[in-house]
Structures are given as C-alpha cells and as structure tokens.
Amino acid sequence: DTAVSQTPKYLVTQMGNDKSIKCEQNLGHDTMYWYKQDSKKFLKIMFSYNNKELIINETVPNRFSPKSPDKAHLNLHINSLELGDSAVYFCASSQGQGGYEQYFGPGTRLTVT
Amino acid sequence: GENVEQHPSTLSVQEGDSAVIKCTYSDSASNYFPWYKQELGKRPQLIIDIRSNVGEKKDQRIAVTLNKTAKHFSLHITETQPEDSAVYFCAASDQTGANNLFFGTGTRLTVIP
C-alpha cells in the first residue's frame, strides 16, 4: 500500500517540451513538497504546499509550477524544458508544519535531450 | 534560507567499526534536524531525527547529537554492517512554518565486509 506515489517513474523528452509529473499521497497529510536531486545527489526544496499556501524556493525558475487539485495531490508542471532540468524529482508529504517526518515518493527521473 | 554543510562527502569503514558524519547549519532559529538514508536508486528515508530541546537521541545502533550553541549535529552509527552502505543526508528545518527541509550535500558511506 504505497504511501506517496509518483508517475511516471521515467520521463525522457526533448528540449522545449512541456511535461507534468503527478504525485499522490494516501497518508492524509496536510503538506506536500517537491524536491530536485541533481546528478551530484544534491537534494533541494523546490516548493511546499499546505492547504492554500504555496511557498516557492526563490531559485526555482517560473517555468516550474505546482498544481494541487486536492489535498492528496500535488502535480509538477514544467514548461519549455531545458537540458539543466534533467534530474530526479521527488515528491514528499508530511503531517503538518514544523518538525514532522517527510515521506518521499519513489522519484521521477527526468532526462531532457 | 538555511545553509547546511555536511562532512565527509565519502566515508569507508570496516564492518563492525563506527561511522560518524557531521553537519553544521546557519540559521539559529532551526529546531528540527532529521537524518535520511538513501540507497542506490531509492527514495530518501528517515532514520532518526532530533529536536532542539534535546542534546542526544539514540535508536539501537544509531545516535544523533546536537550542539545548538555551536550549530552542529552529528550522526553516529556503531557496529556497522554492509547494509548500512548508502548515502546519508542531514537536514535542518528553516522555521518558515512550512517545515521546509534544507539538506546537506550527502555522505556516501561504504561498509567493507
């Protein structure tokens, strides 16, 4: 019974395309996140979303946009893909704010050619 | 935002020996410090966490210590086993209210049988 799931697991696309990655959690958590892990394994927060509040890391280009249709889903849309967007993207969720364990999804490996 | 530094970047130990990984953080308001383990091709998973109201926490072979004055915290693994081989990440919560985690750069631990 998967707690946090992502689709697709692998995504290969060309520069300039627009793509989406879906994330769903069945834990009843209030807060969801997107992280980017680059080729050097650095993990960086991109967005956090709690109910109606979206917090964006200032280094994230505006080509990236999260969309939350409901509390259990936080999808990531990427416009005009660039080579540097190639990475593994992890979705995560937590029970609330301030010191709760974050549960990660299995990751989506995005390759831009 | 928070800046977390982690050392060493790689660590090799003989099976049965201890391993220590150290992290420093910049934001004195941070009060939540989790450690995640990431096996090759897998998602990060929480192994232990500590909050600023305690100086040490232990769970079987794993312990974490926190020095708030010096703004550093450490992970200690005793009696290492080959299955401990993985990349370990420390993190600190930046107190924006969103429970955003800022990760260290990771330590690749190899336990030699």
Task: Give a quick precis of the structure.
The complex is a heterodimer of chains A (113) and B (113). With 113 residues, chain A is an all-beta fold.
Task: Give your account of this protein's structure.
The complex is a heterodimer of chains A (113) and B (113). Chain A is mainly β. Chain A is built from no helices and eleven strands. In chain A, strands 2, 4, 5, 6, 9, 10 and 11 form a seven-stranded mixed β-sheet that branches. Chain A has a four-stranded antiparallel β-sheet with strand order 1-3-8-7, with no helix packed on it. The termini of chain A are far apart. Chain B is mainly beta. In chain B, a hairpin with a 4-residue loop joins strand 7 and strand 8 (72-77). In chain B, the strands form two sheets. In chain B, strands 2, 4, 5, 9, 10 and 11 form a six-stranded mixed β-sheet that branches. In chain B, strands 1-3-8-7-6 form a five-stranded antiparallel β-sheet, with no helix packed on it. Chain B is globular, with a radius of gyration of 14 Å. Chain B has no helices and eleven strands. Chain A binds chain B through residues 31, 33, 40-45, 48, 50, 53, 55, 57, 90, 94, 96-102, 104-107, and chain B through 1, 31-32, 34, 38, 42-46, 49, 51, 87, 89, 93, 95-103, 105-106.
Tally of helical runs of chain B:
0
Number of helices of chain A: 0
Mean pLDDT of chain B: 93
Overall mean pLDDT of chain A stands at 91
Overall body shape of chain A: globular
| Strand content range of chain A | over 45%
Oligomer: heterodimer
What composes the largest sheet of chain B?
A: 6 strands, mixed
Kindly provide the radius of gyration of chain B, computed on alpha-carbon positions and rounded to a whole number of angstroms.
14 Å
Q: Please estimate the helix content of chain A.
A: under 10%
Shape by Cα distribution of chain B: globular
Q: How many β strands of chain B by DSSP?
A: 11
Order of helices and strands of chain B: EEEEEEEEEEE
Global structural class of chain A: mainly beta
pLDDT under 50 segments of chain B (min length 5)? Answer: none
- Rg of chain A: 13 Å
The run of helices and strands of chain A is EEEEEEEEEEE
Straight-line N-to-C gap of chain A: 34 Å
Percentage of residues in helical conformation of chain B: under 10%
